[in-house]
Specification:
Blueprint (H helix, E strand, L loop, with lengths): L4 E4 L3 H12 L4 E5 L5 E7 L2 E9 L8 E6 L3 H11 L3 E9 L7 H8 L4 E6 L2 E4 L4 E6 L3 E4 L7 H4 L8 E3 L3 H22 L9 H20 L9 H11 L6 H7 L10 H10 L5 H17 L1
Parallel strand pairs: 1-2, 1-5, 2-4, 3-9, 5-6, 6-7, 10-11
Antiparallel strand pairs: 3-4, 7-10, 8-9
Helix pairs in contact: 2-3, 5-6, 5-7, 5-8, 5-10, 9-10
The structure holds ketopantoate.
The site of ketopantoate (KPL) has 10 residues, from helix 5.
């Protein structure tokens, strides 16, 4: 029998993932940090699915051998701290969190375990309370730096719709980082959908931000594509034109954003290499001000 995947974080991403695992007959258990069993209602096109989320504290010590953490980067450390008692010493831990710069703070919490990164285009949003609406199951790339899929991937995750092993996960993380640095903060600060960065004042702000950002990303080895970042970002904005970026959703729902792990981290790395990034700095300040206003 294969090990159960425990999915920690019963928000939009966790709920959609738990549904996708169940669709693929991959045994999973959705977990949350509360003290009671809760329900989540997931709307997928015309179907509604009800899922239950169990309190983490219901588990036995060291019960978790496979953990998928679906919280954002800023909540990863707290999630791992809360799960510590329940994690097996050899547990595989996978995170779908975006961004860069969280690794050092997490290292003491992982012990001898490794944190495996997953890069996902799955999208869902929470409509307040326990209602979640799925936008797309998307594609999820998982990798631990090895060419061949790990046994824990082959015995379960490979059957889930859109989940693929990726030998070049580092490049995918960097690519998503670059695209999110261009789109997320700007849509959050302007309060606009992704498609609104293609025309008018939104397009002007995007062009200025990308013109400042691409050279530093290239210098840091975080954008290696032969295509310009501007062309790729415009393509993503067209594909996701009706979406509210995840950062805009966080601002609207008064949740902390991933800014520290996106443009905030870019500023830190850029400064260490001699780049002063005025527009990125302005954007980080603008998003922090929105976060503070919401507190
Ligand atoms: O990844 C995204 C996000 O919102 O975090 C994009 C690509 C911008 C799609 O909305």
């Amino acid at each position: 029998m294969t090990d159960t995947w425990y999915i920690l974080g019963a928000g939009a991403m966790g709920t959609l993932t738990a549904h996708e695992f169940s669709r693929a007959h991959v045994q999973s258990c959705l977990l949350h940090h509360g003290s009671q069993t809760e329900l989540r209602f997931l709307q997928c096109a015309d179907d509604e699915h009800t899922l239950s989320a169990q309190p983490l504290t219901n588990l036995d010590q060291a019960e978790i051998k496979r953990l998928l953490v679906t919280t954002k980067a800023g909540q990863l450390a707290a999630a791992l701290r809360g799960a510590d008692t329940y994690l097996h010493p050899d547990a595989v831990i996978v995170t779908t969190a975006n961004g860069l710069g969280m690794e050092a703070a997490l290292a003491p919490l992982l012990g001898s375990r490794r944190l495996v990164r997953a890069v996902s285009t799955a999208a869902a949003f929470r409509q307040g309370g326990h209602q979640v609406t799925a936008v797309t199951a998307g594609e999820t790339a998982v990798g631990d730096g090895q060419d061949r899929p790990a046994p824990w991937f082959l015995d379960g995750l490979q059957h889930v719709r859109g989940w693929r092993w990726s030998p070049d996960i580092g490049d995918r993380i960097h690519r998503k980082f670059a695209i999110n640095c261009a789109i997320n903060g700007l849509t959050a600060s302007l309060g606009c959908r992704n498609g609104e960065l293609l025309n008018g004042p939104g397009a002007e702000s995007l062009a200025q931000l990308v013109a400042e950002t691409e050279p530093v990303l290239r210098a840091l080895g975080l954008w290696k594509d032969h295509l310009s970042l501007q062309a790729e970002v415009e393509r993503v904005c067209r594909l996701t034109a009706d979406n509210q970026s995840s950062m805009l959703q966080d601002i609207l729902a008064q949740r902390p954003t991933e800014m520290d792990y996106l443009n905030g981290e870019l500023l830190r790395r850029g400064r260490a290499t001699g780049f002063e990034l005025a527009r990125n700095q302005q954007l980080v300040r603008a998003v922090r001000a929105l976060e503070l206003k919401a507190q």
